[in-house]
């Protein structure tokens, strides 16, 4: 399963243009503490975080995460969008809460 | 392979560039054919240490050395130092500023994470600065098979 597949659900919106939608998804990781993400997320995981911060992209790139989803309709700043395009990391947004995003992805087969 | 050696400067509170040293080190390790797991361990250690210099110190420098036998990364900053190293190594203990916390750091996981992933860790600190050397041994098993 890749990012293109999960975007078929209309509750998830792509917010940058140059992310690699063919990134394979190995699972998901939800956390707002970057040290914890750094130490525990696995390669190919989708990160779900409300942390609207450039360092999210640093961690996503260093750990080869497949995408970042911002729940709660977090308004992502342009600096992050530009950086994500540079790194070709897909950024997604949703109005759902973090927990409901996890449930949604789980129903789609992402564990 | 030829030994790899690089020096970098880290500026105080330069959150936007935090991760640059880790990213370049990760690339150098991958180019040497080291395994994903080995690269992951080093990347975690270097990133955490890099963040520590950015969010806790007045700035500093990093030296990255990679040979066929080890990857060794040495951080030196200009202070203010760690008053109590034992406390700093306790998971969850933090003296981070609200600035660091707002940026997703400061949960007291940095040094414990570094200690967990590295083969050797040497940490010394005075009010003039902190010295941190982390070493990862490279063996036959560290390579992609």
Topology:
The complex is a heterodimer of chains A (111) and B (145).
Chain A: H1 3-6, E1 13-14, E2 27-30, H2 34-40, E3 45-48, H3 55-62, E4 67-70, H4 78-87, E5 91-93, H5 98-107
Parallel strand pairs in A: 2-3, 3-4, 4-5
Antiparallel strand pairs in A: 1-5
Chain B: E1 4-10, H1 20-31, H2 36-56, E2 60-66, E3 70-77, H3 85-88, H4 98-102, H5 110-117, E4 120-126, E5 129-137
Antiparallel strand pairs in B: 1-2, 2-3, 3-5, 4-5
Helix pairs in contact in B: 1-2, 2-5
Task: Please explain how this structure is put together.
Chain A is an alpha/beta fold. Chain A has one domain: HprK N-terminal domain-like (Udp-n-acetylmuramoylalanyl-d-glutamate--2,6- Diaminopimelate Ligase, Chain: A, domain 1). Chain A has helices at 3-6, 34-40, 55-62, 78-87, 98-107; strands at 13-14, 27-30, 45-48, 67-70, 91-93. In chain A, strands 1-5-4-3-2 form a five-stranded mixed beta sheet, with helices on both faces. Chain B has a five-stranded antiparallel beta sheet, with helices on one face. Chain B is of the alpha+beta class and 145 residues long. Chain B contains five helices and five strands, in the order βααββαααββ. Chain B has a single domain (4-138), classed as Heat Shock Protein 90, CATH 3.30.565.
Please tag this protein with its features.
A: alpha/beta; Udp-n-acetylmuramoylalanyl-d-glutamate--2,6- Diaminopimelate Ligase, Chain: A, domain 1; five-stranded mixed sheet; 5 helices; 5 strands; B: 145 residues; alpha+beta; Heat Shock Protein 90; 26% strand
């Amino acid at each position: 399963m890749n990012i293109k597949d999960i975007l078929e659900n209309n509750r998830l919106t792509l917010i940058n243009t140059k992310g690699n939608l063919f990134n394979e998804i190995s699972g998901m990781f939800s956390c707002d503490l970057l040290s914890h993400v750094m130490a525990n997320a696995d390669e190919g995981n989708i990160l779900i975080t409300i942390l609207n911060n450039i360092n999210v992209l640093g961690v996503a790139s260093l750990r080869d995460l497949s995408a970042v989803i911002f729940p709660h309709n977090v308004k992502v700043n342009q600096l992050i969008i530009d950086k994500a395009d540079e790194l070709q990391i897909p950024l997604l947004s949703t109005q759902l809460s973090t927990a409901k995003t996890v449930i949604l992805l789980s129903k789609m087969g992402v564990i | 392979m030829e030994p790899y050696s690089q020096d970098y400067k880290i500026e105080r509170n330069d959150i936007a560039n935090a991760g640059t040293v880790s990213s370049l080190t990760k690339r150098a390790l991958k180019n040497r054919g080291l395994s994903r797991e080995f690269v992951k361990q080093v990347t975690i250690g270097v990133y955490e240490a890099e963040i520590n210099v950015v969010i806790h110190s007045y700035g500093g420098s990093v030296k990255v050395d990679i040979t066929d036998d080890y990857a060794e990364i040495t951080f030196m900053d200009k202070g203010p130092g760690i008053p109590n190293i034992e406390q700093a190594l306790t998971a969850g203990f933090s003296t981070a500023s609200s600035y660091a916390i707002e940026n997703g750091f400061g949960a007291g996981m940095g040094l414990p994470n570094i200690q967990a992933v590295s083969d050797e860790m040497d940490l010394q600190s005075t009010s003039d600065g902190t010295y941190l050397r982390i070493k990862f041994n490279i063996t036959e098993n560290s390579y992609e098979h």
